[in-house]
Write a structure and sequence with these properties.
By secondary structure, this protein is mainly alpha-helical. The chain has helices at about 1-5, 10-20, 30-40, 70-80, 100-105, 125-135, and strands at about 25-30, 50-55. It has a two-stranded antiparallel sheet with strand order 1-2. The longest helix is centred in the first third of the chain and has 11 residues, at about 10-20.
């Protein structure tokens, strides 16, 4: 998925070098078949993918790199194949208010929200958006 978004394929060494140049480390290069085999200690059938999985270690302060879209954007900008987006804060036509229940404030004293306009979600994008929110 990532290489498709980056517009080319990479060998393991090429992708390792790109990540290193950007300041990221590859934690592991594996496959779904290898992962399950390691966990179970047995040979896994053909129902598991042999496609290479690159596990990239992302710094704690770089939440933007936790999804394929964010990592792709960062690497393309780093390689001068794309320009950094410019975001603008806008005032809503009508005030928007977020209310946090008192019991929630005890668990999460700070909350953040955003209003996304002119964004279209298909099933894949929506799944990626939800997945990103679930990252620790």
């Amino acid at each position: 998925v990532l290489f498709g978004k980056l517009g080319r394929s990479y060998t393991e060494d090429e992708f390792t070098d790109l990540c290193f140049a950007y300041g990221l480390e590859l934690d592991e290069i594996t496959s779904e078949q290898e992962q399950v085999s390691r966990e179970r200690g047995e040979t896994v059938g053909a129902d598991k993918s042999t496609e290479t999985i690159f596990k990239v270690e992302v710094p704690a302060n770089r939440y933007d790199l936790l999804c394929a879209e964010g990592l792709t954007r960062a690497l393309l900008i780093f390689q001068n194949k794309s320009v950094a987006p410019e975001y603008q804060k806008t005032q809503p036509m009508k005030a928007i208010q977020m209310k946090v229940h008192e019991s929630t404030q005890q668990v999460r004293p700070f909350v953040v929200c955003a209003v996304l306009r002119d964004v279209t979600f298909d099933e894949r994008r929506y799944a990626s958006f939800i997945d990103l929110q679930d990252k620790p």
